[in-house]
Amino acid sequence: xxxxxxxxxxxxxxxxxxxxxxxxxxxxxxxxxxxxxxxxxxxxxxxxxxxxxxxxxxxxxxxxxxxxxxxxxxxxxxxxxxxxxxxxxxxxxxxxxxxxxxxxxxxxxxxxxxxxxxxxxxxxxxxxxxxxxxxxxxxxxxxxxxxxxxxxxxxxxxxxxxxxxxxxxxxxxxxxxxxxxxxxxxxxxxxxxxxxxxxxxxxxxxxxxxxxxxxxxxxxxxxxxxxxxxxxxxxxxxxxxxxxxxxxxx
Length: 250
Prior knowledge:
Layout: H1 4-16, E1 24-25, E2 35-36, E3 40-44, E4 59-65, E5 71-81, E6 95-100, E7 115-117, E8 129-130, E9 135-141, E10 150-158, E11 168-170, E12 176-178, H2 200-210, H3 214-249
Helix pairs in contact: 1-3
């Protein structure tokens, strides 16, 4: 018989170390006409899973779009765009500019265009950016020397309708996003609302776990793995014992 208890146990352990998978790599989208994001898409710098650092001498313009009448929110999972000697915000050696609309001629949406920020459980420190139309454009420029810089963000399609659709979730800030992006229906602690209201439950759990300290968290993960192995070994021994008994009876 299948060991459901062990399977659930292992899934809960894996949930603690879940990583956000990438849908698109930024360098591969350079100077295309448009890229549709669907309900939400995770976009990472670089060209592939094994190469997530953005390239040198780039002048890479990427336009993201969603269905008409909706807008796009960018929330950052990580951000490391090479600053210059003047400080973390400028002058910049590399720049990542964000514009409203289908080209780099639109209004600028970000006030900081380089620097290094680390992700954190209680919300990313870099500014979130939202378009006022169904298109948003990013322009990445880099110099001829790489410091192994990278970034990763979520592009979420949202509306600001007075009433959200039946398959949507209303954020505390009034935005409507797909119900499938909330923690209640999908194992997702990413901030698709821009105010964390879609993932508050899971975020609180992660905060409580991390508050225990790195050593204890590592011990919990190791304990989960060891526990899962012991459960599997126990089930294997039980099956072997039962099989031996049956063969002796025959």
